[in-house]
């Protein structure tokens, strides 16, 4: 299903997070000497976009989804994912992630994003009217207005490498 224009800001952020996941997957196993640089990049993503993205979803999209009994379990699951991923972001800030932790973070984040896109957003588009989706869009615009416009540029160690 084509993404409703009111959910596109979240979908664009999902695309950027998935690009990070692809780079982590391709770089794995990440050598010990590159762990700090990867954790720095994850920390930057978390501060610049992921934390605000999660907050916007929790303030705007999740409460609306909870209005539907069928979405309660999914929203609970997505909220639990947010808590787990925030914990990994905090560990990246402290530079306490291993190569396996980075790969696990990538897989958890990727799975979480796909769940939101394929399950939550699809059902919201089916269940909500155009006006209700527009109301969500307004809420997301407001919640995301302080989002940093800074771009996290991969370093030499974290840039995408061709597959072998």
Describe it:
This protein is mainly alpha-helical and 164 residues long. The protein has one domain (8-144): Four Helix Bundle (Hemerythrin (Met), subunit A) (Up-down Bundle). Helices cover 71% and strands 0% of the residues. The protein is built from 5 helices and no strands. It has helices spanning 8-27, 35-65, 72-93, 99-127, 130-144. Helix 1 runs antiparallel to helix 4 (99-127) and helix 3 (72-93) runs antiparallel to helix 4. The termini are far apart.
Order of helices and strands: HHHHH
Largest sheet: none
Structural domain tally: 1
Instruction: Write down the CATH topology.
Output: Four Helix Bundle (Hemerythrin (Met), subunit A)
The parts where pLDDT drops under 50 for at least 5 residues are: none
**Shape type:** elongated
Reported CATH architecture: Up-down Bundle
Text of the CATH class: Mainly Alpha
How much helix is in the residues?
over 70%
Total strands: 0
User: For the terminal residues, how far apart are their CA atoms?
Assistant: 34 Å
Mind telling me the C-alpha Rg?
A: 16 Å
Measured by DSSP, the beta-strand proportion falls in under 5%
Class by SSE composition: mainly alpha
Total number of helices: 5
The CATH homologous superfamily is called: nmb1532 protein domain like
Query: What's the overall average pLDDT, rounded?
Result: 92
